[in-house]
From TrEMBL:
Chain ranges of the DUF2007 domain: 1-62
A Pfam match: DUF2007
Domain of life: Bacteria
Protein name in UniProt: DUF2007 domain-containing protein
Length: 73
């Protein structure tokens, strides 16, 4: 799994997941349960992960739709 996106905005995360699912790209959201620790105020970012082989198509899909993704490392 490769890290594709980090955000504290739940609407960006939902939009990104919907775009990837529309392209048949499996994704997994990490840190969803951090809201228990933070009290639901949204200060910890959630991470979106994709498989190695889907990373570049997923990255391009998000960038084409105006979502800023993590820099390639």
């Amino acid at each position: 799994m490769k890290h594709l996106l980090s955000t504290t905005d739940p609407t960006v995360m939902a939009f990104a997941k919907a775009l990837l699912q529309g392209e048949d790209i499996d994704c997994f959201e990490l840190d969803v349960n951090m809201s228990i620790l933070e009290g639901g105020i949204g200060i910890f970012p959630r991470r979106l992960m994709v498989s190695e082989e889907d990373y570049f198509p997923a990255r391009q899909t998000l960038m084409d739709n105006g979502i800023e993704v993590e820099a390639i490392s």
